[in-house]
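Support request, please re-run this one:
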Amino acid sequence: MAIAVALLKSKLLLQKNNSSNNHNTNNGAGAVSSSADPPPPNSRSDDHDSLKWKRKAKERKREILRLQEDLKLAEDGMQYDLFPQNAACKCYFYDNMGILSDKQLEDRRFNDVLRRRFLRQVRIKERKRRRDASFKQHVPGTNSDNEIEQLSSSVDFLVELCDAISPTDVEDQAFKNWSHQAVDFILMTLKSMLPVGDNREIIEGIISGLVMRLLRRTCNGSHADDSQHTESNACFYVQHLIRKLGSEAYVGQRIILSVSQGICTAAESLLFMDPFDDAFPNMHNCMYMMIQLIQFLVSDYLLNWSEKEDLEMGLFEDWVSSLLHARKALEILESRNGLYVLYIDRVIGDVAKKAGQSSLLQRLKPNVCFSLFR
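Re-run finished. Output below.
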């Protein structure tokens, strides 16, 4: 409308000028003019108004596109929702938190309604994050690029959810709903993407970053004293999220490798740390949580991983060797706390038992196998 008004005004002005020029020409017929007729006094002002209207029209168009995108984000999938927005997540995601079980912990009742709702929430958060950036027209990419972007956004959503959690929020149904949906969506996306080829390094970087950020949240917030029991309880929820993410071998094996390396680093820190240091109880409790996390993953999923043809044997040998190296690092602390070695020996024994019950034993390198059963 603004462009149309500007063009109409310009056309009317042009017609007026032409009519005025024709009138002057008729009145001065036969006379020789010494100089050209000056331009109408208001022509420059009218051109400026025309440009101003065109600029306003472009700004209005950008605003309309921005509002249309906001509306699409808000309405995406809402017409398909069967439940109200405050519907609770009907699952048993946190029922076995902190409990050792030989049965595989798996709950795949992640229906399309929850998936669409979760995606909508992720998109809204991503939209708010980019609100300050300049508006750019969206250029559709390939399907693989869109899946990688969704995976990265979901990972950021889960990490931010865990970072922002307070001790009183862990019992909140909203946190349980969103965290469950984030974990299931990440696992489903990984299965559909099959990280091979050009996407392999990108996906591995996203998953490795997710593991490190969640482990940091688990250890940084863990406390051994009773006054911080509620905060420690929040860390157990995050530990359980990592445990659930480990159901997929691609993620689980990388978790064990990162945690076993973290145990070596923590053992070295404890060796030179003053027992009366304020950070000592936190590091001490973090050590137990890391050993316990490996025990959960091995007990829950190792046999199931061994049945998959796409199991990365090189990565399996890497984390087994790293776990044995962590055991040696904890031996140095045995004079201070012998329970570290006792607990990690239990985990290594469980790994050897599970490997003996599967085909992993025949596929291991002889030196790794010898170290595992020594």
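Residues 36 and 167 are 84 Å apart (CA to CA). The longest helix spans residues 43-75.
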